[in-house]
Every structure is written in C-alpha cells, then in structure tokens.
Amino acid sequence: MLNIVIFGAPGSGKGTQSELIVKKYNLVHLSTGDMLRDEIARGTDIGRFADTLISKGNLVPDDLIIKMISAKIDERKGDCNGFIFDGFPRTVAQAEALDALLASFGKKLTLMLDLRVEEPLLVERLLKRGETSHRADDNLEVIKKRLQVYHEVTMPVIEFYKSTGRYVAVENCTTVEEYFQSIVQLIEFSICGF
Ligand code: ADP
C-alpha cells in the first residue's frame, strides 16, 4: 500500500497535486476539507457545527475529524492501492491517530510531502481562488487567520514526521507540472530507493 500525507499551508496546492497523484498511482483521495464542505452542503449537524469554525478560519476539533477519516479508511481499506490524505493531519494529535489507524490493519504511512510555498504567493492564490470558489473562508481576513493557525497549530506536525523519518520537502518549484515531477521522483525514490 502507498499511503501519503500531502501537507502544506492553505493555498499551497494540496488539492491540485492530490488529483494528479491519485490518477498516476490509483489511490483513494481523502480530503477532510472536502468532507466537511460536503457535510455543510447537506446541512447536517456536523456541517452546521463545522461551518461556524471554518468560516472564521479555525480548525474543527480533532475527535470529530479523526472519527470522520477513520470511517472513510474503513470503507476503502480492503479494495485500494493506498490513500492520499489531503488537509489531514493538521495537528500532532491527528498525526498520531493516523499512525494508529493504519497500524490497526498492519499498514504504515509511506511518506509526508510538504509543499513549500512563499507566504505572499499563498495569499495571492487564495484571494484569486476566492473570486470563483465561493468558499466562505477565501477572503483576506479569514486567510490571515488560517495562516496563523497553520503556523501555530499545524506546523508542529512537520517535526513529528521529521522525527520519525517520513518527512520530505517539495520546494523551489514554480509550476503545477514542476511540483508534480518532483513529487513523482520523491514517491518513486521512497518506493524503490532510486
Ligand atoms: P485549505 O488547506 O485551503 O485551508 P482545506 O479544505 O484543507 O483547505 O480546509 C478548509 C478548512 O476546513 C480548514 O481551515 C479547517 O477549518 C477545516 N479542516 C479541514 N481539515 C481539517 C483537519 N484535518 N482538522 C481540523 N480542521 C480541518
């Protein structure tokens, strides 16, 4: 099984790269942001609760996220090549929970890919996306809050993966295609060691 965490600040291109990786390696794409937006669109209790947090740029509580992702892993673990986790884990507690979930059926995380993008470019991209995404959190005030939460709560996840030898940075790329080529090389290296 190939199990990958795609990590990075809001606007770093996690969703875009996930789609490309999924096609090439035939993985199941699990985006916690997409799952939450789906709950919101369906007007569920979880969706209503999550909306109050997401629209202010805050994180949704760990226990809710872990329950949601655990159910999705259970649904697909028997019939897929592996998973790509997009926007998850966002806290060290979530990262620990992911290891435990994978270990519960004898699997491991292959690697964590950290998409490194300069902050001014992140803001520019998110504002541009806001023009068409109609996402409640793609406006300047909430973008600033999301970046602050990323620095304070999510960045410690990097140390967690560094300390367990699964961290890989993807940097110095400009185009979507360039990022993807780097990612493919890193995945191939982690699979075959060349
Ligand atoms: P982005 O990376 O652009 O912020 P996402 O779709 O990954 O977009 O997340 C949007 C919002 O959904 C986050 O700001 C947060 O409020 C919530 N969210 C998504 N994933 C998680 C998670 N793993 N833990 C807590 N909250 C999450």
Helical content band: 55-70%
Number of strands: 5
Outline, from the CA principal axes? Answer: globular
User: Stretches where pLDDT falls below 50 for ≥5 residues?
Assistant: none
Class per helix and strand makeup: alpha/beta
Tell me the series of helices and strands, N- to C-terminal. Answer: EHEHHHEHEHHHEH
Instruction: Output mean pLDDT.
Output: 95
Helix count equals 9
Strand residues, percent: 5-15%
Q: Quick one: biggest sheet?
A: 5 strands, parallel
Q: In which order are the strands of the major sheet placed? A: 2-3-1-4-5
N-C termini distance = 18 Å
Q: What hetero molecules are in the model?
A: adenosine-5'-diphosphate
Layout of helices and strands, plus pairs?
Elements: E1 4-8, H1 14-25, E2 28-31, H2 32-41, H3 45-54, H4 62-76, E3 83-86, H5 92-103, E4 111-115, H6 119-133, H7 140-154, H8 156-163, E5 167-170, H9 176-192
Parallel strand pairs: 1-3, 1-4, 2-3, 4-5
Helix pairs in contact: 1-9, 2-3, 4-5
Adenosine-5'-diphosphate binds at residues 10-11, 14, 32-33, 36, 53-54, 57-60, 65, 87-88, 90, 94, 137, 146.
Please outline what is shown here.
With 194 residues, the chain is α/β, with parallel strands linked by helices. The protein has helices at 14-25, 32-41, 45-54, 62-76, 92-103, 119-133, 140-154, 156-163, 176-192; strands at residues 4-8, 28-31, 83-86, 111-115, 167-170. It has a five-stranded parallel sheet, with helices on both faces.
What this model shows, in words?
With 194 residues, the chain is an alpha/beta fold. The protein has nine helices and five strands. The chain has helices at residues 14-25, 32-41, 45-54, 62-76, 92-103, 119-133, 140-154, 156-163, 176-192, and strands at 4-8, 28-31, 83-86, 111-115, 167-170. The chain has a five-stranded parallel sheet, with helices on both faces. Helix 2 (32-41) packs across helix 3 (45-54). The longest helix has 17 residues, at 176-192. The model has no long low-confidence stretch (mean pLDDT 95). Bound molecules: adenosine-5'-diphosphate. Residues 10-11, 14, 32-33, 36, 53-54, 57-60, 65, 87-88, 90, 94, 137, 146 line the site of adenosine-5'-diphosphate.
